[in-house]
Structures
1.
Amino acid sequence: MPEPTAIYKEPIHTNGTATFTSLPQNGKADIDVPVLMYHRIIDNRVAAKDNWLCVHVDVFDKQLRMLELWGYSAITFSDYYLYMQGKLILPRKPIIITIDDGYLDTYTHALPLLKQYGMRAVVFVLGDRGLHYNKWDEHKGIPPAALMNNNQILELYREGIEIGAHSLSHPDLSCLPKEKAWKEINRSKTLLQEELGIEPIAFCYPYGGVSPLVKQLVQESGFQFACSVFSGPAQFRKDLFEIRRITVRNKLTDLALRLMIPQKIITGLREGIRKNKRITEH
Ligand SMILES: [Zn+2]
């Protein structure tokens, strides 16, 4: 087996310093990695306040600056995969920034800032490349938002952003019969390969809708990682097919608190609140 890369490959745009962990002897994952979840990065303050899926571009700027000041280095799932195989040494404080759905504002607003801070990210896009806006939100009265086209996704990819799959058309996979769920998962992978020449290794469950069957289909499709929203163990490495993410809201303090308080404490607090609620309801 070749020696692991001694230095984490240079960020595509360097303006920070990174220190590096030593590789675990067995080459297996032994450090925790916070995984952040974004959807839209917009320049409309009112909309950013009203919609939990939106973060204002100025807040995103401050959040990235904070991550940099706190010594985080943004890695991708591909980096982590190499690390698991003993081929790459991770930075001292790795973090994964994920952005869902492939909105146009990922290209226009998020990418320039990611480049500025030398941060990489994982962007989950739909396999149905004929989808030009968030059609799946229509019935909820959410205004249409444009999605990136193939050229824009390829430009992201060339800038070092990892592209992951997010099903074909954004259904809740846990509600679909097996054949339909398989097509949504498997075809989203092959279409990204065929149309963009990108082989995704990470999948993201739309709405966080996951079941044991859905998880199995994702594994059988050849993905190595899958992200949920609110489910999954508190620690990243415990289930790479149900990776719990930190929802980043339009507040700097919110992200700061989420990074300071370990996920297992947050999960414990949430469970406590739910339990208390059940007791008072009875
Ligand atoms: Zn989504």
Note: The two ends are 60 Å apart (CA to CA).
2.
Amino acid sequence: MDGRPALSTLSPDELSPILAELGVPPWRGRQLTNALWHPGVVALHEVLQLPARLRARLDERVRFCTVDEAITTEADSGLTVKLLCRLSGGETVETVAMESPAHGGRRRRATVCVSSQVGCAVGCPFCATGRLGLRRDCTAAEIVDQVRVAGAALHARGLGPVTHVVYMGMGEPLANYDATVASVRTLAAGMGISPRRITVSTSGVVPAIERLAREGLPLTLAISLHAVDDPLRDRLVPLNRAHRLAALVDAGADYARRTGRRLTFEWCLIGGVNDRPEDADGLRLLARRTHAHVNVIPMNRIDGSPWGPPDSATTAAFLQRLQGARTTVRDTRGGTADAGCGQLRAALEERRELRGDGSLGPPRRGAAAGATR
Ligand code: SF4
């Protein structure tokens, strides 16, 4: 592991003595921090305002960026960019940038989906990340730097800055609470991304939702619900055995009351599992009672799972029964780029481009033709 402090999460009080020790005048320090948040700059050698010798000395003391863009794939004619980011120690996480051009009266958006952990301990059976187990937490800087690297990928394609961030990649963000909250504060202070444009998605860590409600951060909270009864939710989200559905819904409703932010219920729609009329009816009632928004996500198929999305008629009937609740269907952008949560990493592991220690390597001889992107 790299022991140098991460520049993106160093406070001015922590950075000043380092710069003073290196003999860097304050105006050079300002050049450094301005460059840190520039949308196209993610490597110290790109900070051309600073002399090369100073960059070399700084590089010995601080990490300008804690993630490297290891592999990039594109979908949707380049509007979705999926990155596999390498962390210190060689582990990798997935990050996705999605550009939504201005349309009608709606402004342009660029949303980055970040990972908060390498793997995940929750183990939802419909999720590729859950199969990895938890390898380690991401640091706050690693979360922030995923946004910087994804922003640089958009910038390199001639697109504008990141406007929104969602914590919906690999991991359970509220199981890595301190890093998640610290990264939200840094994204706001450094990149100017208001917490109102940040969504944290949780599988239901009830005590952490209660704590988050008292942080004074107007984040959108998305609860990965997927079931409206405990027996089914125990199967789909094993964390439900520790934090029951009723307590989770109460915590979510209290969060919405305290922050003034509308709650979102995420529903991964799985054919033959949670697509019954009674599931839709229960979800509609719950959403209306809590004034929550419902986001239905037809399941992305993952290798080795018998589950998948329902057919289109069942999906339409499910959505029809939700009428009366505010509902959207999440587009499955990035599906052609292995963009389901944990799917790019899982696909590479399958193809042996990802070694057992999480580092990247060449595909084994005899791996499927065309596997290397
Ligand atoms: S769906 Fe989310 S909480 Fe469940 S295993 Fe995957 S990453 Fe973890």
Note: The pocket of iron/sulfur cluster is lined by residues 120, 122-124, 127, 129-130, 170-172, 203, 341 (CB under 6 Å).
